[in-house]
Amino acid sequence: MDSTAGPLNQLISDALAVISPHVPRDLTWPILLLTAGLATTIWLLRNGGGAKGADGRVRKMPLRQFLLPSDIYTHASARVDVSLYVFERCLRPLWVTTLLVGIAPSTEALIMDALNALLGSGPGLHSHYGWMLLYSLVTLLLYDLLFFLIHYAEHKIPVLWAIHKVHHSAEVLTPLTRYREHFLEGPIYAIGAALSFGIAAGLFGWLFSDSIAQATLFNISFFALLFGFNGSFRHYHVAFHYPRWLSKWLHSPVMHHTHHSYLEHHWDTNLAAVTSIWDRAFGTLYIPEKDEYTPWGLGPASQGKYRSFWQNVSGPFRDWSAMIKRKASSSAGLHE
Ligand SMILES: [Zn+2]
Ligand SMILES: [Zn+2]
To answer: Which one of the ligands is nearest to 160 CA?
Structure first.
């Protein structure tokens, strides 16, 4: 029993600690200091330019205002970020325990059973650093694919968009905006994370037979940095670009600025969490120009309904009841 419990416990604790952008332990001082250090470098290199204001336009600022602009951090949207973050953290243990910890082990067992039934027992490979890296990479790509598919569905299906809208109702971006989400959204992404961790663990568990007991298989330290940095910096107002060739492989933080823009040509783009691979495959990749204008939020037509904490919490329920009413009145119209 221990041989399967060991790596899975390690998997879950690693996942909780570092992988999921929806688990808030990556909002740590080292990551925030790294973010501030890189932002200062951009300020120096660009002579005070390169950071956006609350209006989504790049401007030149003195260093303190560059790092912590008052129009962003005193904005009503930034205050709502804090309330939604606290609320979401209170509810998080419920779904992390039931979904992530519940689904990942059973998915792992299902995949191992299926591979055993289809291909017989695994080749019993021995782990070394290359395999550990491959395991991390496969987990990352699977996680990113599941994240992409869920996020794509949230943007395209009105019932789900009603939930995801809360993330997009942010009018300014701060590192806390990453956790600005409706309390119904956490469980959806937890299922995606659990499935991707479970599938990767099952596949590598089968390949390595006994040596799956080595928890060190799951060495994620390099990706921990990537996930943590990507998450906090992509919701920071500093426009941090990667070279164009790198943006085709990894999402640069500024690519998420366009994801949050309400301009129509930015809609439904850059939907993955870390890599650009899935957006490229599905035709949703958008690499912005330097200093591209990205006004954040839902846009003038609907922003007024998503300003306060309670407006955001009640948003999906209001949308769903409007959808039901519309459906009822259109079918009543049909029967007249
Ligand atoms: Zn989105
Ligand atoms: Zn976002």
So the answer is: 1
- CA 304 and chain centroid, separation: 25
What is the Cα–Cα distance from 146 to 189, expressed in whole angstroms?
8
- Residue whose C-alpha is closest to residue 253's, from 230, 270, 284: 230
**Separation between Cα atoms, residue 238 and residue 15, nearest integer Å:** 28
Strand partners, 52: 58
Q: Give the Cα separation of 231 and 273 in Å (integer).
A: 8
Ligand nearest to the CA of 279: 1
Nearest-ligand number for the alpha carbon of 22: 2
Ligand closest to Cα of 170 equals: 2
C-alpha 181 – ligand 2 centre gap (Å): 9
Ligand nearest to the CA of residue 269, numbered in listed order = 1
User: 257 CA distance to ligand 2 centroid (A)?
Assistant: 8
pTM: 0.86
Q: Which ligand is nearest to the CA of 151?
A: 1
Contact indicator for 123, 205 with CB cutoff of 8 Å: no
Distance 184 CA to ligand 1 centre (A): 15
Positive or negative: CA dihedral 35, 40, 41, 45 = positive
Q: How far apart are CA 99 and CA 184, in angstroms?
A: 13
Q: How many angstroms does the Cα of residue 16 sit away from the middle of ligand 1?
A: 22
CB 238 within 8 A of CB 39: yes
Q: Which ligand is nearest the CA of 180, by number?
A: 2
Per-residue pLDDT of the chain (336 residues; tens, 9 = 90+): 334 445 555 555 555 544 443 344 556 777 788 888 999 999 999 999 999 999 999 999 999 999 999 999 999 999 999 999 888 888 877 777 677 777 888 888 899 899 989 988 877 777 677 777 788 788 889 989 999 999 999 999 999 999 999 999 999 999 889 889 999 998 898 888 888 888 988 888 888 865 543 333 344 455 666 666 677 788 999 999 999 999 999 999 999 999 999 999 999 999 999 899 999 999 999 999 999 999 999 999 999 999 999 999 999 999 999 999 998 888 777 665
Which ligand is closest in space to the CA of residue 272?
Answer: 1
